């Protein structure tokens, strides 16, 4: 339990965090990696280079300060981040390192304004937050299907759309668990000319694991950024090669229900929703389904045949696909008209797509609506 004095001091730092949060997290990462280069084997350096990880961490620290009186409000974010941490193999011994360099960055950026009282209060607050993460992650580690990263053999690779490949992999020494629709695996590789390991999450495409785990990878070239791992997997990994995977993880999972369901995706964001559609049709083909997907063009539309086959088995489904290069858009008016007021909505796509769509559905002010989402990028994060 945090003391009243600590909570008061932490809340008082909110304006400073709002003004200097990004600078603090930039200094934090720079100093931590200089002192502990081995952590580069865990952290996504691409997100570091694009500033996305720093932004996510700054949002986390600010949210913790604003909610210091009722940290339970952050539990949904804790669950999401803890799943990521378990998949990346973040361990309890990493938290003191993060705490040390986070406090050091606050002191370095704020200078004399970071009084001993402020640093002591944030040290106490960070310790309490870290304890919550460690306890949550311990439960996830105890439930994981296998420990660490296990060897898998690539048994199939096939093109599923423009610059998108689906890999099927089979374990060499572990047993496959039942997979929940919406979960992801984490791939560990060491690309040439890199001095450290690289880890990436990829959504599982199917809950059917009879022939192995299936996941899809888009070759990333957006905004001048060349995806390190996606290019490696596309260019170097062939049938017969070995990949290292950690056990399935994630809390963005499909649940059956009586209300209508909307599956809304863009680009490679279709991968977890395809598994959800499969699970839905197999569990209750009569549930009202609205399937919405956005792609650049028909060549870029992944899993066309698989989606059509699943929708043909549904008894109450409508489907709409939008091609942006033809000027087709999901406008607010169209979405409000074509999605049920009481639907459970599953969203997945790029960060920009998620920001836009989540905001639109929130603006509809539907009391019975439930929106769940998984962006391809860092949410609020406390490390990885």
Major beta sheet summary: 6 strands, antiparallel
Categorize the overall geometry: globular
* CATH third-level topology of the largest domain: Globin-like
Total DSSP helices: 12
- According to CATH, what is the class of the largest domain? Mainly Alpha
Per DSSP, what share of the residues sits in E-state strands of 2 or more residues?
Answer: 15-25%
Bin the helical content.
40-55%
Distance between the termini: 26 Å
Query: Average pLDDT across residues?
Result: 91
Low-confidence stretches: 380-384
What is the number of beta strands? Answer: 11
Features:
alpha/beta, 43% helix, 6-stranded antiparallel β-sheet, 384 residues, Elongation Factor Tu (Ef-tu), domain 3, Globin-like, 20% strand, 5-stranded parallel β-sheet, Rossmann fold, 12 helices, disordered C terminus
How does this structure look, described?
The protein is α/β, with parallel strands linked by helices. The protein folds into three domains: 4-143, Globins (Globin-like, Orthogonal Bundle), CATH 1.10.490; 150-249, Translation factors (Elongation Factor Tu (Ef-tu), domain 3), CATH 2.40.30; 261-375, Nucleotide-binding domain of ferredoxin-NADP reductase (FNR) module (Rossmann fold, 3-Layer(aba) Sandwich). 43% of the residues lie in helices and 20% in strands. Strands 4-3-6-1-2-5 form a six-stranded antiparallel β-sheet. A five-stranded parallel β-sheet has the order 9-8-7-10-11, sandwiched between helices. A hairpin with an 8-residue loop joins β3 (184-189) and β4. α1 packs across α7, α2 (14-35) packs across α4 and α6 (94-110) runs antiparallel to α7 (116-143). The longest helix is centred in the middle third of the chain and has 28 residues, at 116-143. The two termini are 26 Å apart. Residues 380-384 have low confidence and may be disordered.
